[in-house]
Amino acid sequence: MTGRDGMLRGLGLDDPQRENAVLLAIIEATANGPGVEPLAAAVAKVITDATATDVCFVHVLDDTDRSLTLAGATPPFDAQVGTVHLPFGQGVSGWVASMRTPVVIVDDKRSDPRYLPIPELRGEDFTSMVSVPMTSEPAGLAGVLNLHTRSRREFDDGDVRFLLAIGGLLAGAVHQARMHRRLRTREQAHERFSEQLVAAQESERGRLAREIHDGISQRLVSLSYHLDAALTLVDRDDPRQARADLESARDLAGTALGEARTAIGALRPPVLDDLGLGGALTALARDLPVEDVRLELDDERVPEHVEVALYRIAQEALQNVQKHARAAAVAILLEIAGDQVRLSVSDDGVGFDVSPLGPSSGGYGLASVRERADLIRGTARVESRPGSGTTLTITAPLTSPNDEESAENTRLSVTE
Fold first, then answer.
1. Is the distance from CB of 102 to CB of 137 less than 8 angstroms?
2. Burial level of 137, CB count in 10 A (0-12/13-18/19+)?
3. Domain range 3-186, its CATH number among 3.40.640.10, 3.40.50.300, 3.30.450.40, 1.10.150.120
4. Residue 186's closest CA among 409, 402, 376, 374?
5. Phi, psi (deg, nearest 5) at residue 72
6. What's 125's DSSP letter?
7. Residue 196 CA from chain centroid, whole number
8. Which of 111-120, 151-160, 245-254 has the lowest mean pLDDT?
9. Pairing state between β 103-105 and 85-87
10. Of 23, 345, 366, 374, whose CB neighbour count within 10 A is largest?
11. CATH number corresponding to 270-405
12. Buried b / exposed e across 334-345, counting CB within 10 Å, b at 16+?
């Protein structure tokens, strides 16, 4: 039987009041906290208890938005939570996620071309299954909800509609939980980065202090000594020796001036003030010991903190080219479009295997590159493989968080 009565009998619900009780239990489960896994586990138990099914799996869209991860399951499969991953398009759940369409298999799963056995979930132990997408507006797809029974079960249209309603409730809660997790992860990353930034600032101050003490200060002391000696020799009417001391003093003054400029350049490259980011990148390219250098550089000015970060990243990337790449050609691209800037540094050198280099890796100076990209709320992507060169791409917004918040408030005011 189809329709509402069929739905109740098909899922083991006795009347509309019990159906409403199930929906209420789902709502209460979704209100228990922001964690995705506890939420999925609670909902899985509510659904199996209410529908007299044997097992429920809640597969949640992961942060790549291209695969599913088992986030909740009824025992004994709760031990597999977080270990089962299903790419879009693979298996029944992957097909449901990709097509946003429910699937019912009453029996003989192996005859369905979409079915893919997952040993950890022991699909062969169950006869019938129904799989529905968990979707909501405006969040979209949040995952896939699966119910299985050992005995043969006819899941009709009413059953599917009811499970879609549950999936819609769960999708909104999962979306909120994912956003909460991402926000918390970002906050933790910002906290760690703030600590690293303070440490880096103190380290940089200490380095500059040592350079000034060991370099500039010592040169100035020697300069003062030679000037005093020259004055004494002038008084003694010894111009030849006085001239020698003055020449030494002049050389020391030139050395001290060069060291002072180096120290100032470490704080902020003067070339940025004189030429802007495009001109500064051109100046960096001139120093490359590479015959073929291609430049595509927008000459618009960008915020000062973005200029400094991108310049330092380019410096690091080009130093890596010189040290490691053995390249014959280098390309530097700076593109400014709308409220975004993109910097790309490519070479045709030896390349390297990026797969072992995670987000925290310091290989090839990538750790400092990623840290500088984080400073300007940007992203760093490295593409390389042995023998095929390397491309580093930095993409960053040109607006500050305050600008974005102000724009959002303005938009809301206009909307309201």
1. no
2. exposed
3. 3.30.450.40
4. 374
5. -155, 145
6. G
7. 18
8. 245-254
9. unpaired
10. 345
11. 3.30.565.10
12. bebeeeebbbbb
Best CA proximity match to 71, nearest among 132, 135, 166, 144: 144
Nearest alpha carbon to residue 144 among 154, 132, 136, 126:
132
Nearest 5°: the CA angle 392, 395, 398 is 145
Q: How far apart are CA 7 and CA 15, in angstroms?
A: 10
Give the span between the Cα atoms of 295 and 311, in whole angstroms: 15
Residue whose structure tokens are 């199996």:
48
Q: Residue type at 385?
A: R
Lowest mean pLDDT among 6-10, 34-38, 130-134: 6-10
CA distances from 375 to 280, 305, 372, 383, 411 (A): 20, 9, 5, 21, 27
For residue 219, which of 250, 256, 186 has the smallest C-alpha distance? 256
- Residue 23 to residues 43, 51, 129: CA-CA distances in angstroms? 10, 12, 21
81 or 268, higher pLDDT? 81
Residue 217 in contact with residue 256, Cβ under 8 Å? no
| Strands 85-87 and 329-337, sheet pairing | unpaired
Residue 314 Ramachandran class (φ > 0 left, ψ -120 to 50 alpha, else beta): alpha
Distance CA 118, CA 127 (A): 15
157-211 and 366-375 are packed helices; what angle lies between their axes, rounded to 10 degrees? 110
Q: What is the DSSP string of 229-259?
A: HHHHHHHTT-HHHHHHHHHHHHHHHHHHHHH
**CB within 8 Å of 36: residues ≥ 6 apart:** 60, 71, 174, 177, 178, 181
What pLDDT is stored for residue 31 in this prediction? 64
Domain boundary assignment for the chain: 3-186, 190-267, 270-405
Query: Exposed, middle or buried, 222 (CB in 10 Å: 0-12/13-18/19+)?
Result: middle
Torsion sign, CA atoms 86, 88, 90, 91 = positive
> What gap in Å lies between CA 178 and CA 68, rounded to an integer?
13
3-class SS of residue 97: helix
d(CA 109, CA 115): 6
pLDDT at position 296 is 94
Q: Which tokens belong to 49?
A: 């208890």
pLDDT over 80 (residue 178): no
Of the candidates 345, 315, 312, the one whose C-alpha atom is nearest the C-alpha of residue 327 is 345
